[in-house]
Every structure is written in structure tokens, then in C-alpha cells.
Amino acid sequence: MELKGKLYKLFLLLPASFVLFLSGCSEKIAVLNPQGPVAKSQYNLIVWSFALMLTVIAVVFILFTIIVIRYRERPDNMDYEPPEQEGNTLLEILWTAFPVLIVIALAIPTVKTTYALEKAPKETAHVEPVTIYVTSANWKWIFSYPEEDIETVNYVNIPKGVPVNFKLTSLGPMNSFWVPELGGQKYTMNGMVMDLILQADYEGDYLGRSANFSGEHFTDMEFTVTSQSPEDYKNWVKEVQDTAPRLTEKKFLDLIEPTVVGRQTYSSNHLLWVDQHNIEYCDYNYFKNRLNKDK
User: Fold this and answer.
1) Is the pTM of this model over 0.70?
2) What digits encode the pLDDT tens for the residues 89-132?
3) d(CA 260, CA 290)
4) Digit-coded pLDDT (tens) for 6-59
5) CA 148, CA 144: separation in Å to the nearest integer?
6) The domain 122-294 is classified under which CATH number: 3.10.20.30, 2.60.40.420, 1.10.8.60, 2.60.40.10?
7) b/e map of 258-278 (b: 16 or more CB within 10 Å)?
8) Sheet containing 175-178: which strands, arranged edge to edge?
């Protein structure tokens, strides 16, 4: 009986401790702080899933409480033995149907949202997107702007309110590109290109990171996404084109070696040396062989 009493007290304290835990968070959780339409859609999906699961938990706990109180052992029914039951068809239908309905309620909005996010947001579907190639390497992120002919390392600037089509690839092990406040993660893989459309509705800096274990220094693979006004973004592009050094093939080969580096900026990009339509055939050995051939 003493053990039952302790378990009962623990059961009562769990909800209160959960509330205290949430109230103690002084900083906003990134995935629950959407700063663009893609992140907002995913946030709504998280809230819907969370609300549905809370409903299930509430029903289970209510039924549990009713059964414990109503059918508990009491002095007036100490010798009671329940009759033999063959099975209740209605109950069996209910406890089979409810999980199916829950899965359907989760699956339909998830599938709709997933397919909708493969295209630019409806609000800015008429706006010409910015295309940026993202290359993961051990242990850094390389961002190539084919139209602006610039390249950055471990940071990327984007215009506010404009959809950005990130084309993800890798010159090393598989990795995961993730900016929690702008949208969900997507993998970068050697030998192929994955598209990820994100958009920032507000100016500011957003932390991006590697969400996949890829070696000793994968925790150093953090980058900053800076959302600027369209005018500031154009000024930044012009400044880089006018003042930043050009990226040589030798410098790029040194860059993709397994090292940890800081932020870098160049007024040309490595896409100049490859066919963008066949970029999936380019890997580390491609650039190494190309450089040796030029020697």
C-alpha cells in the first residue's frame, strides 16, 4: 500500500513538473518560433499533432481514473468475482476504429503540407526566387550564388520576403541542412541534388546547423542565415563582387579538405568549373583530378 501511495503522488506531480519545466525556458524554442511561411506551415502541423495527442492522453487518463474509482476493491464487494465474458463487439470495433481515425487525422494534413512545401509559398509564388547551391563538406557549409557569381562559407545572406531555392549537395559524407526558424531539415548527399525552398519574412540572423552526425567536428558545422531588406541585399552583393577575392581551384580544393574554417567570402564560385545540370556527378575526386590535370 505504501508503494501505491508513492506512485499515486508521483502521478499527481508529473503534470505540475511539466508545466514548471516549460515555464523555466527563458529562450524561445527555435522550431516553435517560425519566421517564414514554410516554418509557419510546419509549426501549424506540429501544433495540430500535439493537440491531437493531448486529446488522446486526456481520454486515456479520464477512462483510467473512472475505472480505478468505479471498480476498485471496497469492503462491500470483497468477495465479488466478475462473470465470464466472451467479448464485447462494440468495444472491439471502437478500440480498432479510433487508432485508424487518429492515423488518418495525422496523415492527411502531413501529406498535404509536405507536398505544398515542395513549391514556393502561395503568398510569394509570383516572386522570382533566389537560387543558392549548398555544398556540405567536412566540416563546413559552402554557399554558391550562380546568378550573382559569388560564394560564401559558413554564412548565407538572403533577401527578406523572397523565396530561396536551396539546391543541396555534398562533397563528403551525407549531412543534414537545417535552419529551424525557417523550416525543416533536408539531407545533402554526394552524387545528387535536393531542392529545399525556404523564406524569411523578417530581417534578422537565424542559426543553421548540421542535424546529422558526419564525423569528428560535425558540431562545428553551424552557419548563419542573414535576412536583409532587398535593398541591403543588393548592396551586399555589389560589395562582394567589387571587393572580395576570387576563388581559385586550388583554394577550393584546400577548402573542401576535412578542416574546420571560419566565414569566408569570394567574388566567384566553384560552379563555374562544372556543368550545373550534371553537378550530381561531381565529387571530391572530380575536383582533385581536375586540379592535377591542370598541373
Assistant:
1) yes
2) 888 898 899 999 999 999 999 999 999 999 999 999 999 999 99
3) 24
4) 444 545 555 545 444 444 444 578 888 999 999 999 999 999 999 999 999 999
5) 9
6) 2.60.40.420
7) eeeeeebbbbbbbbeeeeeee
8) 155-159, 222-228, 204-210, 175-178, 186-188
